[in-house]
Design a protein that fits this description.
Layout lengths: L6 H9 L6 H11 L7 E5 L5 H10 L4 E6 L11 E5 L5 H10 L3 E6 L9 H22 E12 L4 H11 E7 L10 E9 L4
Parallel strand pairs: 1-2, 1-4, 2-3, 4-5
Antiparallel strand pairs: 5-7, 6-7
Bound molecules: S-adenosylmethionine (SAM).
Length: 197
């Protein structure tokens, strides 16, 4: 994760965050207030754990954070953090997340497929993963809850955003300052989930 010695890398290292990405969730939350104290948060694609660390300071000790990743992750020293090692594309992973909390206030997803260097392929793979996470989210997010996800941007984005607008009162596309200048990743903030679409 610490592969670029930029200012966010240095800040993250000094603060003990496992990723510079931690600053993205802090920045997004300062602006959009998607996560609040006491919330139950599902962190999809959580390794190495920077977002979960940042979220834990927002939700406090009455909140719960459930992190999922296909990769192993060194344990986080956070008492209300639960780690599930699993593939987001498999139903059994969803079942495990539901067995910890039946419903979540917020789902956040920084999950990304391995990049190939081909923008179209990366966009298509990213959209496929995010679509699965969205279907997953519809089953675990409480009514009025929020959903944030990362997408490698590309031409099929609009149809997906259109679908999201049926399920959320507000949908916004953003590029946090902490995103590297040459990256084609975007974040989509979806607020006020309507369970029946
Ligand atoms: C950019 S990293 C997340 C960084 C994290 N937000 C942080 O701050 O430390 C993306 C993660 O998504 C995970 N991922 C990608 N595809 C996945 C899948 N199908 N199931 C579970 N995790 C997946 C990767 O293993 C990787 O750890």
């Amino acid at each position: 994760m610490y592969n670029r010695k930029d200012s966010y890398y240095k800040k993250a290292k000094q603060s003990g965050f496992r990723s510079r990405a931690a600053y993205k969730i802090i920045e997004i939350n300062n602006k959009y207030k998607i996560i609040k104290k006491g919330d139950k948060v599902l962190d999809a694609g959580c390794a190495p754990g920077g977002w979960s660390q940042a979220v834990s300071s927002i939700v406090g000790n009455k909140g719960v954070i459930v992190g999922i990743d296909i990769l192993d992750m060194p344990p986080l020293d956070i008492s209300n953090f639960h780690f599930i090692k699993g593939d987001l594309l498999k139903n059994e992973t969803l079942d495990k997340a539901k067995s910890i909390c039946h419903e979540y206030d917020v789902v956040i997803s920084d999950a990304a497929p391995n990049t190939t260097g081909n923008r179209l392929t990366d966009h298509v793979n990213s959209l496929e993963l995010v679509t699965t996470v969205f279907n997953f989210t519809k089953k675990v997010l409480k009514s009025g809850g929020n959903f944030l996800f990362k997408l490698f941007d590309g031409e099929d984005r609009e149809d997906f955003i259109k679908d999201l607008r049926n399920f959320f009162s507000k949908v916004k596309i953003i590029r946090p300052d902490a995103t590297r200048k040459n990256s084609f990743e975007i974040y989509v903030v979806c607020q006020e989930f309507k369970k029946d679409g």
